[in-house]
Specification:
Distance between the termini: 123 Å
Strand content: under 5%
Structural class: mainly alpha
Helix content: over 70%
Number of helices: 32
Length: 560
């Protein structure tokens, strides 16, 4: 029987059957190898949609996109073209069919196709529902096509009946790409159109302000919510507290935390983590642990971030044994230490020179199923570099490369520093050359290590060349490099160059340290440049820096 006759037979059966029976016949015919046609697919879709069996019609459309329903006589695009031809516009199910086609393209993560059929709908005079518009806007934003979403929103807001969710989607999208002004513009449009922004809308914009560094606008929105009678929820307080702590406004963060508790809202793990992190950064470990205990009393489940933050805070205070005990407690609480936990503790042991313990943890980490990261190796290499253990460094680099980690810019800088510490400046420059051959661009820290090495061995000619080359590399010397060069020139006895470098440093908005002032004044006095030395001494005192007693006596003896 010819395909056309088979299609006619199937359609005649479908016409005589109730919708679900017709769907069964449609599916079973496909299983029996019957090649479907434009007509059979069009019929079943219109039948299902007119019967409000939308999930079934969506299933067929998705199978068409994925190729599960196919035939030599059509392609998915030709089917969708046939289904949306202008002569079918009078069909009562056509608007719903268009929306269904758009929806399945959205589900299939195909933004261009979804947008094509949406624009086609508008062009035909159909009015899509807000759900359809919202789903396309979400997909466009997720697909990094915010500009397209912004254009669509502005072109259709006078056509489609918008809802609160649509404004929320756009405000969130604006915040994610850092367009805060546009986010506030959407909020204004929402109010102009008679919508009352809810807590979710305000919280989304407050979160955007905090994440984009505009804490003041976020704060204003937070208080505006209260003036409008909107009650901040747990998430609103959390994003605001997190924003305060990220900006270093710890006092404001703690005030809001107390206000949150007075409002009867229990802080969540994210709010506690922000506050604990702020305390650890300030070295207030006692208060950090008070918050930790409060969390547990309030039955707020700690997570790995909570423990890692506290472990890091203890390591900063060189309380590494306490940090390790906390990691054991973490395990007892049913949380597995992650790569960050191990890296932090390994770094802690390296910082106090206990390399054997650091290696023991390193092996424990591997036996626990964690693969060491490049950061892990850099931490250990830095530790062995500090201890001038070249054999240990070699073993670590070899293992690192065996595990597929190529040395990074940080790795090379650590290796160069290790060689400089060992007074092997020649080998340090060989490693520097290897770094450049590997396609890595040295940063200001790498150059700082090399300049320091040259100054230590008294090769100020090469140090000066390297310093001057920074401009060619579009790198600006930092205060460490300036102070290194000043002290290098002072050791060399070159008062003129030291003074010139010191003035250049001040001209670039940096303040030389006490050692640089003392050394420069001393070498100026040695060259009997008493006037310049006296001027520098006054400048130093004016800046609040304390000159050494010997420098004061030297100038005082000359003046008397």
């Amino acid at each position: 029987m010819a395909q056309t006759e088979q299609a006619l037979v199937l359609i005649s059966k479908l016409v005589k059957s109730p919708p679900l029976k017709a769907l069964y016949l449609f599916n079973s015919s496909a299983l029996q190898g019957f090649p479907h046609s434009h007509q059979s697919i069009s019929f079943i879709l219109h039948l299902l949609i007119s019967s409000n069996l939308f999930s079934h019609s969506h299933s067929i459309l998705l199978k068409l996109i994925s190729g599960q329903i196919s035939a030599s006589s059509f392609t998915p695009s030709s089917i969708f073209h046939e289904l949306t031809l202008p002569h079918l516009d009078s069909c009562p199910t056509q608007v719903l069919l268009h929306e269904a086609i758009i929806d399945v393209h959205v589900q299939s993560q195909l933004p261009k196709q979804a947008l094509f059929y949406f624009n086609q709908m508008i062009g035909r005079g159909f009015v899509p529902g807000s759900y359809t518009l919202n789903s396309i806007l979400i997909l466009l934003i997720k697909s990094d096509s915010f500009e397209e979403a912004w254009r669509l929103f502005n072109e259709t807001k006078s056509i489609v009946k918008l809802d609160v969710y649509c404004f929320g989607i756009m405000i969130k999208g604006c915040c994610e790409v850092g367009y805060l002004d546009k986010g506030f513009e959407v909020l204004g449009q929402m109010e102009e159109m008679g919508f009352s922004p809810n807590v979710v809308i305000y919280t989304t914009l407050i979160d955007g302000c905090c994440k984009n560094g505009d804490i003041e606008r976020g704060k204003q929105l937070f208080y505006k919510m209260g003036e409008l009678g909107l009650v901040a929820n747990q998430y609103t307080y959390t994003v605001m507290i997190n924003g305060f702590f990220k900006k270093g406004l710890k006092k404001d963060g703690f005030v809001l935390y107390e206000k949150m508790k007075l409002a009867g809202i229990v802080p969540n793990v994210y709010a506690y983590n922000s506050m604990i992190c702020g305390c650890c950064n300030d070295g207030k470990m006692n208060y950090a642990f008070e918050l930790f205990d409060e969390m547990r009393e309030s039955r707020v489940a700690c997570n790995a971030v909570t423990y890692n933050t506290l472990i890091g805070g203890l390591c900063q205070e060189r309380r590494v044994l306490d940090a390790e005990r906390l990691m054991c407690r973490m395990k007892r609480d049913g949380l597995s230490p992650n790569l960050i936990s191990y890296n932090t503790l390994i770094d802690g042991y390296c910082s106090i020179g206990k390399l054997g313990k650091a290696l023991s943890l390193f092996n424990q980490m591997k036996s626990s199923g964690h693969s060491p990261s490049l950061a892990t190796y850099n931490i250990l290499i830095a530790g062995f570099s500090e201890a001038k253990n070249s054999a240990g460094i070699t073993d670590l680099v070899r293992e690192m490369e065996t595990r597929g980690h190529s040395p990074s810019k940080v790795t090379y800088t650590i290796l160069i520093d290790a060689l400089v510490r060992s007074d092997n400046i020649e080998k340090a420059f060989q490693i520097f050359s290897s770094m450049k051959k590997a396609g890595l661009v040295a940063d200001i820290f790498t150059y700082g290590v090399l300049i320091h090495g040259l100054c230590v061995v008294g090769d100020m000619k090469e140090a000066s060349k390297l310093f001057k080359s920074l401009g060619e590399m579009h790198l600006k010397p930092n205060d460490v490099i300036y102070n290194t060069m000043i002290n290098g020139y002072c050791k060399e006895g070159s008062s003129y160059r030291a003074l010139r470098m010191l003035k250049e440093m001040g001209g670039n908005g940096m303040v030389p340290n006490v050692a640089s002032y003392n050394s420069t004044i001393r070498v100026l006095c040695k060259d009997e440049k008493w006037r310049e030395a006296g001027t520098l001494l006054k400048e130093m005192i004016k800046l609040g820096l304390k000159p050494s007693i010997s420098i004061r006596n030297m100038i005082s003896d000359y003046q008397s």
